[in-house]
Amino acid sequence: MSLPSSPVSQAAPAERKRGASSSWRWKIVFLFGLLALVAAIVWQVANRQQNGMIPGRPLSSPQTHLHTVVISPRPGVVYLGTHYGLFTSTDGGHTWPQSQGVLNTNMITSIAVSPSNPDLLAVLAVPTSGLSGRMGIYVSADAGQNWRFTPPAHLPASAFPYSIQAAPGARGHFYAFFTYAGWFETQDLGQHWSAITAGSLASIQTPSLLIDPANPAHLLMGGDQGLFETRDDGRNWQKVAAVQGYVRALVATGPRAGQPRVIFCATDQGLYRWQEGQEITQIGHLPAPDPPLRLAVSADGSALYALFRSDLWFSPDLGTTWMRREHFARGDMVALVLDPTNPGHLLAGFYSPGLVMSSSDGAVSWRVLTD
């Protein structure tokens, strides 16, 4: 006569079955995780091998797109924002010591350097692969030796980093624009961010921002909706009615002893000029039928450069007279940068294949800075 099975003995096979099933599930999860990790490593290795960059020549591969060029206030320091990270030269672009870019799993699309302290940097980063990297803002307090990821909080899922600009401020004063979210401001190197646009202005397209170095609460903002001004750090914005059209470029001379800034604004309707607090006028007799696409002006006003389609023109008298300097064979310029310490030193950056041209004589002659 057999004894009835105990509840424990009856449950044992089921428990073993569930345990085996759970064990297989964990093995499958682990296997997929391992495969994803291997795929990420293979992608990174293959990506670096296939981009074909030659050490010391950060734009030597045709796959390395150039997104931006910045000349630091510190003499000799030049930054390149590329498809494979950030590159730095400390001798004016003659040498590039990095074997690969910093933050190189990201495209560095915009770079800002504090005019008060060149050690304070901020960059916009977009991952080159969905497998690694975080999209947003990285900041550095030691000229790029170390980086901290610090985007504004509570950004909408549709927000995309577009531009970052530096303002005077020893603690790290920066402005960043995210499409579909607007402009944000930090005065402590990204520890805290606050929005300075709302409503329709938060969705302005291709925005530019001009910061008054004498009064950080005074800002000019341009884009597809026109030109706007605030004197209370973004709490209230007013449209500048005298400037018509889609703003393409916005620059100003530096503050000079006893003289207000001279501001230039290029739109699809023309080129405008005015002194701080005075009447806005439209510059006539431009050297080309279409208004300029890009502008650069020296702090003292002795050099104004304007890109009309693929032609670069120079004005020594704030846009009254013009001299043609260069016809660029390419139409994909991403940066026209003027050295803050030398009005005759310019850099012109082109997107793909990445290329930087340099002039040290006021755009009269050019050489390849890096390829």
What does this 3D model show about the protein?
- The chain is mainly beta and 371 residues long.
- It has a domain of 142 residues: YVTN repeat-like/Quinoprotein amine dehydrogenase (Methylamine Dehydrogenase, Chain H).
- It is built from one helix and 27 strands.
- A hairpin with a 7-residue loop joins strand 22 and strand 23.
- The longest helix has 44 residues.
- The chain is globular and about 50 Å long.
- The N terminus is likely disordered.
Layout of secondary structure:
Layout: H1 7-50, E1 66-71, E2 78-82, E3 85-89, E4 106-113, E5 121-127, E6 136-140, E7 148-149, E8 160-167, E9 173-179, E10 182-186, E11 194-195, E12 208-211, E13 219-223, E14 226-230, E15 238-239, E16 247-252, E17 262-267, E18 270-275, E19 281-282, E20 294-297, E21 304-308, E22 311-315, E23 323-327, E24 333-338, E25 346-350, E26 355-359, E27 367-370
Antiparallel strand pairs: 1-2, 2-3, 4-5, 5-6, 6-7, 8-9, 9-10, 10-11, 12-13, 13-14, 14-15, 16-17, 17-18, 18-19, 20-21, 21-22, 22-23, 24-25, 25-26, 26-27
Structure keywords:
mainly beta, Methylamine Dehydrogenase, Chain H, four-stranded antiparallel beta sheet, 1 helix, about 10% helix, about 35% strand
Strand order of the largest sheet: 4-5-6-7
Would you give the CATH topology of the domain at 62-203?
Methylamine Dehydrogenase, Chain H
Biggest β-sheet description: 4 strands, antiparallel
**Class from secondary-structure proportions:** mainly beta
End-to-end C-alpha gap:
92 Å
Cα Rg? 26 Å
Overall CATH architecture of the domain at 62-203: 7 Propeller
CATH class of the domain at 62-203: Mainly Beta
Total beta-strand segments: 27
Number of helices: 1
Order of helices and strands: HEEEEEEEEEEEEEEEEEEEEEEEEEEE
Query: Percentage of helical residues?
Result: 10-25%
